[in-house]
Design goal:
443 residues; Growth Hormone, Chain: A; mainly alpha; single chain
Length: 443
């Protein structure tokens, strides 16, 4: 099944790769767009200012509540993916988050924005696990499968670049765009732009083939019913617990540290007191470097994934540098200038995205077909979205007790503290990570 050279990709397989990559890009767009719009959106819809207790409260709500709601929906979506098929769930998930993303741009109150963000992230959470199971089962050659999963996920960074670029362009040219809600708020245009990648996905996905592995088992009557209880049975308990904890740590770095970067930028020494437009452009610029780091990290992982046999060793290749880099960037560079901080964020994002890619190559190799998406969605949604994203709340609240005369400086020190704590926990937990039994996907 996996020996010998990989077969050449067919035209349909290339199209599947392109559609999956675009789906991954749109997923991250909806995640990354929040930290760049949350500050101006809260200010516009709630008339609140950074540093106020009410402002921090709404930041925490907008980061955490959609992740919890989305995680619960994603958990159900993973179960339905194993029960009803990969393609069917993919089609409906893209419809849900496209409609919700459009509605977010037209929100008139903070509760409305929160509601629409919950629906958007719910669609994203369902889509990702279904797409990975679909890809893993379409490409049966082991090295080809690892490469496809790795390189298509590198497109995640394109979604981040699109979000950062869309916000930068909206800030710069908002007054020349058609009004939304009788205004030219840049954050609304950034939310609206997330609809663009969804259009080709809605058109193409219904016509792409279902996973042949899932379809054949379903037709033969040998496809077992998915079960959450089985994830905690003797065969899978250790895998489920350790991977859920480690993915929670990966998301804690993303949401508790990297996603706080746009709120740190306005407090950089040369930007304090600068014109609002210059500050927002700087936010967009730093976010662009962060997303470039995301692409670099995903590409580096894709290269290493087929060259490093031990999955535990592969994960640690990103964890050890990350421990050092995140402390230096957020405890030092954030206090000493825009370009030093931007360069540091690039390296930090590179280190962070290796572990995030890692799990989507790892999970298909440890969960059998009938609970593959269920297992992936449990680690992703319970570990990542329900537990890991709470780090955004921790960082925000911890910043109140950090040193520094500016709110952004206190936030940066809090981010550094969270990063070191989470990386140490990840390195310890990784010692119990099970190695996959072989290159073949378990059936």
């Amino acid at each position: 099944m996996s020996s010998g050279p990989a077969p050449r990709l067919t035209a349909v397989q290339w199209l599947i790769c392109a559609v999956a990559a675009l789906g991954f890009a749109f997923d991250l767009y909806e995640v990354v767009v929040l930290p760049v719009v949350v500050r101006p959106a809260i200010a516009a819809l709630g008339s609140l200012k950074p540093g106020d207790a009410a402002f921090d409260h709404w930041v925490s709500l907008l980061f955490y509540v959609p992740s919890v709601i989305g995680g619960a929906c994603g958990l159900l979506g993973g179960y339905l993916t194993d029960l009803c098929g990969r393609r069917r769930v993919l089609v409906w998930s893209i419809v849900v988050y496209a409609v919700a993303a459009l509605a977010s741009a037209y929100a008139t109150t903070l509760p409305q924005l929160l509601l629409f963000r919950c629906a958007t992230i719910a669609g994203v959470a369902v889509e990702y696990a279904a797409a990975v199971s679909w890809l893993a089962e379409v490409f049966v050659h082991a090295r080809q499968r690892e490469s496809v999963l790795g390189f298509t996920q590198a497109a995640v960074g394109l979604g981040g670049l699109m979000a950062s670029g869309a916000y930068y362009l909206a800030v710069t040219y908002a007054e020349h765009l058609p009004p939304i809600r009788m205004g030219h708020d840049a954050w609304r245009y950034a939310l609206l732009a997330g609809l663009a990648p969804a259009i080709p996905l809605i058109v193409l996905r219904p016509f792409l083939p279902e996973s042949s592995v899932w379809r054949q088992k379903r037709a033969a009557g040998t496809l077992r019913r998915p079960s959450f209880a089985e994830l905690f049975g003797p065969a899978l308990r250790r895998t489920t617990v350790i991977t859920t904890l480690l993915y929670a740590c990966a998301y804690a770095i993303a949401f508790g540290v990297i996603e706080q970067t746009p709120r740190i930028v306005p407090g950089l020494p040369e930007l304090r007191g600068a014109a609002a437009r210059l500050v927002e452009q700087a936010v967009g610029t730093v976010q662009l470097t962060s997303q470039a780091g995301t692409i670099a990290g995903r590409l580096l992982f894709a290269v290493l994934a087929v060259r490093v046999a031990s999955r535990r060793r592969l994960l640690r290749l990103f964890l050890w540098p990350g421990l050092i880099v995140f402390f230096v960037v957020y405890a030092y560079a954030a206090m000493h200038g825009r370009w030093l901080f931007a360069g540091g964020v690039f390296v930090a994002a590179l280190c962070m995205n290796g572990p995030l890619s890692f799990w989507w190559n790892y999970w298909p190799r440890v969960y059998p077909v009938h609970v593959r998406a269920t297992g992936e969605s449990f680690g992703h949604n319970v570990g990542g979205r329900m537990i890991g994203t709470f780090a955004a709340v921790v960082t925000t609240e911890l910043s109140r007790f950090m040193p520094g005369g500016h709110p952004a400086a206190r936030l940066a020190y809090a981010a550094a503290t969270v990063a070191v704590t989470v990386y140490v926990a990840s390195l310890i937990a990784s010692t119990w990570l099970p190695e996959p039994a072989g290159e073949r996907l378990p059936e």
